Amino acid sequence: MTADTRAVFLREFLRNPFTVASITPSGEALADLATAPIPDTGAPLVVELGPGTGAFTGAIQRRLAGRGHHLAVEINERFAGMLTARYSGVEVAVADARNVRELLAERGYRQADVIVSGLPWTAFSREHEDDLLDAITDILAPDGTFTTFAYTHTRWAPPARRLRDALGAAFEEIVPGRTVWANVPPAFVYSCRKPRVPARQGALLPV
What we know:
Elements: H1 3-15, H2 17-20, H3 28-34, E1 45-49, H4 57-64, E2 69-74, H5 77-86, E3 91-94, H6 100-106, E4 112-117, H7 126-139, E5 140-151, H8 158-170, E6 171-176, E7 187-195
Parallel strand pairs: 1-2, 1-4, 2-3, 4-5
Antiparallel strand pairs: 5-7, 6-7
Helix pairs in contact: 7-8
């Protein structure tokens, strides 16, 4: 990640902290874990939600190596423009991630094989969070994987606990990964499988 990219990320955070929600992009080690479920063969459809300046985008492109289709959904127009200029193999849609069902349908797709999220969950209301997870579980293939990350230092804060509970309601299988201490700040990845359709509140994620 270049110094210019970090500077743009910081400026966008200061301009709209509720949609960026971090002062620095995620690191390569976290990106490698978040994108690990992308299969080595075939032509998978990978949907990336909230790519920002591309912390996970490059890792997805390396794993795909020209295969399949990579749709990145980014609400910030400046970030979207940067991604379009940098990654010719990525289709970038400037849209709210809650509209991902419609975005896939417009492109002739029904389900994604892998969904990778860089979304700032702690900045969302419960209703916004529920709408997102309903959309995600609706489009994820039955044998697909959804990954998202959380910061270790906020793991026991109310918004983080709410996210864990919401993930437990949305998926039958949720695996919290190891902490990536090299990330700034340290973070870990949730790997979620076997989507419940539709997502419902009530199930709890083991901690």
